[in-house]
Amino acid sequence: EPEVTQTPSHQVTQMGQEVILRCVPISNHLYFYWYRQILGQKVEFLVSFYNNEISEKSEIFDDQFSVERPDGSNFTLKIRSTKLEDSAMYFCASSLGTGASPLHFGNGTRLTVT
Amino acid sequence: DQQVKQNSPSLSVQEGRISILNCDYTNSMFDYFLWYKKYPAEGPTFLISISSIKDKNEDGRFTVFLNKSAKHLSLHIVPSQPGDSAVYFCAASYSGGSNYKLTFGKGTLLTVNP
User: Fold this and answer.
1) Which listed site, A33, A39, A105, B12, has its alpha carbon 20 to 30 Å from A26?
2) Chain B interface, mutation test: which of A26, A32, A41, A103, most B Cβ atoms within 10 Å?
3) DSSP codes, B40-70
4) Which residues of chain B have pLDDT under 50?
5) Cβ-defined contact of B34 to A102 (cutoff 8 Å)
6) B11: which DSSP letter?
7) CB–CB contact B106 A55 (8 Å)
8) Which distant-in-sequence residues (6+ apart) come within 8 Å of B104 by Cβ?
């Protein structure tokens, strides 16, 4: 079964550094998402992306965050200047459509900011 | 923001018995509901969904019930198996518009004892 793949599985970075989290969505999917889960908290929506542009973003997704689909397969999340509170599991997801079309998640990247 | 609530952080059942996981929501705009299962170090895996035009959806051992008037849904697993032990997340979305995002509950840890 097709799956969403994320790299790296674990990223450790120092505060203030830039990180790029990478994702390869399911190939025929059209909608792409980033979610995150801070330890012990809910899975939270960050951003959705369709047709090469952001379609919706949460209040968490401030100017430090950006997303890009640099080619036909990768979908990246960049955090420009990481903060301690950015430490979380970051999940990429994709879906075929909207409405009654479930999201399929990758296994996540654990980001640790020291 | 508690639009989706899973009030039971954990549930323990015996193998072969029924597991019932509950979820409440407050936003009456939600019209699509999903259950995800999550093992440690993996991303959420889609299990089953239900649209607000239905009150029941069944897939093998998994059945989701929706009570719109009570803003309540439940996931029934029968018979429960040890491999079902995982965190179960309820999620909801509003399918109108050009995209959708999921609002997750905090999850319920299900333990199925052999």
Assistant:
1) A39
2) A103
3) TTS--EEEEEEETT-SEEEETTEEEEEETTT
4) none
5) yes
6) E
7) no
8) A42, A43, A44, B4, B36, B89, B90, B91
Pick B102's closest partner by Cβ from A45, A99, A100. A45
Q: Beta-carbon neighbour count of residue B80 at 10 Å?
A: 23
Q: Which residue has the tokens 């989706």?
A: B4
pLDDT, residue B99, reads: 58
pLDDT recorded at residue A101: 80
Which residues are B110's β-sheet partners? B11, B86
- Dist CA B89 CA A79 (whole Å): 27
pLDDT digits (tens, 9 = 90+) for A9-65: 999 999 999 999 999 999 999 999 999 999 988 999 999 999 899 999 999 999 999
